[in-house]
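Weekly sync, protein design subgroup
Attendees: M.S., D.O., the rotation student, P.L. (late)

Item 1: inverse folding check
M.S. brought a backbone from last month's batch and wanted to see whether the design step gives back something sensible before we order anything. D.O. pointed out we never logged the input encoding, so this time it goes straight into the notes. Structure tokens as presented (180 positions):
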């Protein structure tokens, strides 16, 4: 169980660009209040932006699924524990996309820091973009900012949809994820 004071940021419900802007501004204020080291704030910011962007981009698939959104709303939290800031993002996912997503995350989870950097450089330099306008950097950037491999679950809701939860651990220190 965690105390409410351990929560740095919480949002549940649909996202808009305006809401994302407010959440990022709130993160900045709370980081200053807690006097987070610049490196920790930067990693939290990267993970927050990428997580919220993923939720936002995927929202269009569910705008007409009000019954599902009532029971499975998108949710984003940042909570502090003893060793890490735990960032958790969850949203609905089309079942048709689950294996592609699982494969992509597992590939990234298997990479060491050097391989993540090489993947990052390759994506940055190839100039290719997806149909939604992204370059495919999001999970790579989150993995680079994380102190541990990305953690996730995909839980089937019905024949059409699943619930995707992504958990990212960000170190409390400015180092490479290791507490000193």
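Designed sequence read out in the meeting:
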């Amino acid at each position: 169980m965690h105390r409410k004071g351990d929560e740095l940021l919480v949002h549940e419900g649909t996202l808009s660009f305006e809401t994302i802007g407010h959440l990022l501004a709130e993160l900045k204020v709370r980081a200053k209040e807690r006097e987070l080291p610049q490196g920790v704030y930067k990693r939290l910011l990267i993970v927050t932006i990428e997580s919220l962007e993923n939720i936002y981009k995927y929202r269009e698939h569910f705008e007409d699924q009000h019954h599902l959104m009532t029971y499975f709303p998108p949710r984003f939290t940042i909570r502090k524990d003893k060793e890490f800031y735990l960032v958790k993002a969850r949203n609905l996912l089309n079942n048709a996309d689950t294996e592609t997503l699982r494969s992509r995350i597992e590939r990234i989870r298997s990479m060491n820091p050097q391989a993540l950097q090489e993947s990052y450089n390759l994506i940055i330099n190839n100039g290719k973009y997806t149909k939604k306008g992204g370059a495919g950097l999001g999970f790579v950037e989150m993995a680079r900012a994380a102190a541990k491999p990305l953690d996730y679950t995909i839980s089937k809701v019905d024949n059409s949809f699943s619930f995707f939860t992504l958990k990212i651990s960000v170190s409390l220190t400015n180092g490479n994820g290791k507490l000193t």
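Discussion: The radius of gyration is 16 Å. Residues 4-171 form a domain with the Heat Shock Protein 90 fold (CATH 3.30.565.10).
Action: P.L. to compare against the previous round before Friday.
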